[in-house]
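thought: fold this chain, then report.
action: predict
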Amino acid sequence: GAQSYQWSNSPGIQHGWTDSLLSIMPDQEATYTVTGTSRLGCSAQQSYAIRLMTDKSLIVNNIVSPNGDGKNDTWFIQNITSFPNNEVMIYDRAGRMIYHQKNYDNQWAGTINGSPLREGTYYYIFIVNNGSQVFKGFIELLNEKW
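observation:
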């Protein structure tokens, strides 16, 4: 509820130094402190300690249900930021490539050229580290509202 915000200088801040929401990508554990000031000049501080995950393995969700309920609306790959310069390809059952993206960012919502795909099973190839690691699997696309 503050009118202005100021975050302390901590490692890994991407942007948002003067916003209520801070975007960070820390490479070490850190504490982030924000000072909020009201329009009357009253201020308060809050600190947030960030502990880093040591497991940065790729965890691929195989369900996409783009029905707008906020759950599995896009194809989500956990820890994807640990694998920069990635490439993803998604194929239908006939082997046609329906999606291709370099530097995938968890945004695919079960569409082709902006149109929703039919429910069913789709297959992905996810390449990282210039081809030194290749992950393959399937995605179940569910379009019905539950």
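thought: worth noting. The chain has no helices and 14 strands.
final: tokens above.
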